[in-house]
Amino acid sequence: MSIRFIRLSLPALLLWLALAGLARGDQGAGTLVLGAEPFYDLTTHLEILASPPEGLSLEQVRSEPWRGRFRPVTTPSLNLPSDELREYWLRFTLWAPPEIPAAAGTWLLATDYIFLGKIDLHRPGTQGWETIRAGLYLPFVNRELTNRAFVFQLPRLDQGPATCYLRLETRGLNPIRFQVWSLPAFITHTAKEDYLYGICFGVLSSMILFNLFIAASLRDRVYFHYVGYMFFALLSMVMLHGQIAAILDLGDQGFTRLFWTSMGLFTTFAYLFMRGVLNTHRLAPLVDRLLRLGSYYGLVIMVAGLFDQAWIGRWLTVASGIFSPWLALGAGIASYRRGFAAARYFLVAWGTLAAAMTIFALQEVGPLRGQYWARNALIIGTALESILLSLALAARIRTLQQERDVLSQSERRFKELSYTDALTGLYNKRYFSLNLDRILSDWVAPAQPPCLLFIDIDDFKSFNDSHGHDQGDLVLRGLARVMTESVREADLPCRWGGEEFAVILPGVGLEQAQAIAERIRQRFGQIAFIPAGQAVQKTISLGLAQFQPGETVEDFIRRADQALYQAKRSGKNRLAVAA
């Protein structure tokens, strides 16, 4: 190729490019061609221009030099990292071949990203450029199409390609995607998602109300933590998916503050709930300290939201989303390995949520991008988790009740041991003293005053010396058995100490008390003990006293004891009654 040819053709080429540029007008380099599909991803067909601080008008961005400064978006989603509120212009061109139905159909532009302070669509119309305004700064009812997402009607395409402009004001908190929908497909898609959100939000609300009722009934702090956890999870989801705008007109700043405040409290209550339901303060102290730090971490997110530091709240929440599932699963495993059976429900619940978060993340980064179930995995996982955690709470109550029953039985057993004589199985002197005081305090005339019976085995020391302590223990057990079989159910047979025994006889007349004492004496005298093959019968002496109004406990015991010694002095093997 000669240099002369290049010199002649180069001006012609430049002239052709200039004419092509004039013919293209506002059209961007990435034109989206609509066909038979009901849905298209517009993001990679966008061109973007970052506005200077003073802002730009539509006329400016359509003119040089700004028109030539648009750059194509090459990523699946639009990322606008900025700590401050920034203005961006987006340009896109739509075209549908005249011979296909799409050219005459109605098409909508939609974005699910709801953290937009302002989003204005500039579209060509029959009377010139039309500006459709939306964003968090406007009331919900002022949107062109009332939907939880920002939705705009696109210009008709039967007259040829149409170039539109979007003006955004955003803090760049999350990736933004834009879709183009046919009207019937968008209606079907919206209805399907609304049904799903209704079910999931209904499940969360039901779990909150049900467990709030239980929390108020049981006064259990863990249930209150669960209710707080689920309430702020529900509030965060309602805000994340845009439904809150139909209820409250918060504005951009108010919306951002409320969202990150709720996310912080959501995190705080999540960690408080984990500590309580897994009983980590007792089972895993190290894990418990980590969970406690996690609850403080959530408060930092809340403070960042209250002071309108959304970028701090965002990165703290992203970090929490990375380590929280692992910490929760680790805490559940630690609690389960230490024998807390209710932790298995917790592990299933958090495993379900972790799987949902993974699917949602894969949808965000690309492999599952745009798929219906993947896009809504987080809200579905949260609803399922709320049910499973409610089961974990119920299992925890059962486990704690079982532990409480075992503890109660142990306490009862220890109490019995502390009040029972180990050799004879009768109550000991401590139990005797406590109950005698109680019975005398409860007695009210004209009911029969209580009686007190003291018993002593005759010549027990000589029997012990002759036959040994093992045989002496058999005699003591034999007397204890006779006493138990001879008294009434309300009576309290006790071992006073050594070979001395006592029986408290409440609400019995003196004659009936004497009959009980004689029954014990006679039955015991009939028992034959056979130490070293020789049958031996033992006898007992008994002293009986009836409580006299006005006397002290000590006087009452002294009179019964004196009656016992009187029986001993009178020849033993007999009953003496105190005057």
3D structure, described in words:
With 579 residues, the protein is an alpha+beta fold. The chain folds into three domains: 24-182, Immunoglobulin-like, CATH 2.60.40.2380; 220-408; 429-577, 2-Layer Sandwich (Alpha-Beta Plaits). Helix content is 53%, strand content 16%. The protein contains 16 helices and 18 strands. The chain has helices at 3-24, 58-61, 183-218, 221-240, 251-278, 280-283, 285-306, 310-337, 343-365, 372-375, 377-419, 429-442, 460-467, 469-486, 510-525, 553-569, and strands at 31-33, 39-41, 47-50, 71-72, 86-95, 107-111, 116-125, 128-134, 150-153, 162-170, 179-182, 451-457, 492-497, 500-505, 528-529, 536-537, 540-546, 575-577. The strands form four sheets. Strands 1, 3, 4, 5, 7, 8 and 10 form a seven-stranded mixed sheet that branches. It has a five-stranded mixed sheet with strand order 13-14-12-17-18, with helices on both faces. α7 (285-306) packs antiparallel against α8 and α14 (469-486) packs antiparallel against α15 (510-525). The longest helix has 43 residues, at 377-419. It is rod-shaped and about 135 Å long. The termini are far apart. Residues 1-25 have low confidence and may be disordered.
